[in-house]
From TrEMBL, chains A, B:
SUPFAM superfamilies: Homeodomain-like. Residues 37-56 bind DNA. Residues 14-74 form the HTH tetR-type domain. PROSITE patterns: HTH_TETR_2. Pfam families: TetR_N (PF00440). GO terms for molecular function: DNA-binding transcription factor activity; transcription cis-regulatory region binding. This is TetR/AcrR family transcriptional regulator. Keywords: DNA-binding. InterPro entries: Homeodomain-like_sf (IPR009057), HTH-type_TetR-like_transc_reg (IPR050109), HTH_TetR (IPR001647).
Length: 210, 210
């Protein structure tokens, strides 16, 4: 990325924006929606409230943009590291499942969860979070397919990958109040083995129809 | 259950308590933690605020008891209906997975989710919700094993059942802001097939060690 065309002022503005977005995610993860105001985030980012409002006119703008930005950054970081993954096979499957679940058990998921639950009862947030959830969900699904080297054309693959992301969300929730690391490691191992078996068995295991 | 030993006053008190608990879950599911006060619940239950406080001295008492009570009732209702389930095999597995996931995508889970997320940032709730989560989690795990006719002594079974409950939590979350029924049905079908294959294959599929 060339920065030659940007003025120092544009660089400063971009850096401020970036600091605000990162502070907003940390703030949400730590303090929840009730405790997360533009003022608190501005303070944490070392920016005036006026500057924060210049970048993000409303509280909803700030926090929605923050979760989207940090999610995109984390996904890009994972993509940059795929060269480090083992070749396709059970070891890679387990490594990828671990990566995905690590993403869902850290501060980013915690922040998103607070926003998500607030959106269930706050109208101005609701529509924005539904749209955000769709975009981030689609991106995560595509990345998971890519990392696992799976073809969505194979029957059952789409649902298996969706189940993996749903499981990750559930494990994220289970990690909210207590450190669930130990229990989770058994689940991740077992899930990885089942996922591998499902994709090895040419995707969907036939289900008896009732 | 004999009611012969109870006085009419005890019956009324029990009925009041029951109405409060059910109203508290509905209230949480609809209005979230911020909107759920003892006053709102008392009104919805058609009980005076004083009577509500006689049964539940604090807001935390009321909502924690409500989620625990309704969870126990739902589980008991499922237990009472196990005679209707198909015999052990793929059809039963899918029916049980559906039952579990239905439990996690209804108002009870929604209420629990609001309480859970509030507990992440509200100290008086935190310890109580951790304890509640442990008790309800243990009960749900035991019921799932029972319904699926699985023996936890078999390697991998415990983790597979845990994964099923984690998946259910994730699907509950995915259903919070939008109706996820259609997407979910594919995930449930696929997961049921994977679960059946895992238990048929004498539990854990071996995982390559790296």
């Amino acid at each position: 990325m060339s920065t030659a065309a940007r003025t120092p002022q544009q660089d400063r503005s971009r850096a401020t924006r970036q600091r605000l977005l990162e502070a907003a995610v940390d703030c949400l993860a730590e303090l929840g929606w009730n405790g997360s105001t533009v003022t608190v985030v501005a303070e944490r980012a070392g920016v005036t409230r006026g500057a924060a409002q210049h970048h993000f006119p409303t509280r909803e703008d700030l926090f929605t943009a923050a979760v989207e930005h940090v999610a995109a950054e984390r996904l890009a970081a994972l993509r940059a590291d795929t060269g480090e993954l083992p070749p396709l096979g059970p070891a890679r499957t387990e490594a990828v499942v671990e990566l995905i679940i690590r993403l869902y058990t850290g501060p980013l998921f915690r922040a998103a969860l607070h926003l998500w639950v607030a959106a269930a009862t706050e109208e101005p947030l609701r529509a924005r979070i539904i749209a955000l959830e769709n975009r981030v969900g689609r991106e995560s699904h595509r990345a998971a397919l890519e990392f696992l080297g799976l073809d969505e054309g194979t029957p059952g693959v789409r649902e298996t990958v969706q189940a993996t992301l749903d499981l990750a969300r559930g494990l994220g929730l289970a990690n909210l109040l207590t450190d669930d690391t130990q229990r989770r490691s058994g689940v991740v191992r077992q899930w990885s083995a089942m996922l591998q078996a499902a994709v090895d068995g040419a995707a969907a295991v036939p289900v008896e129809q009732n």
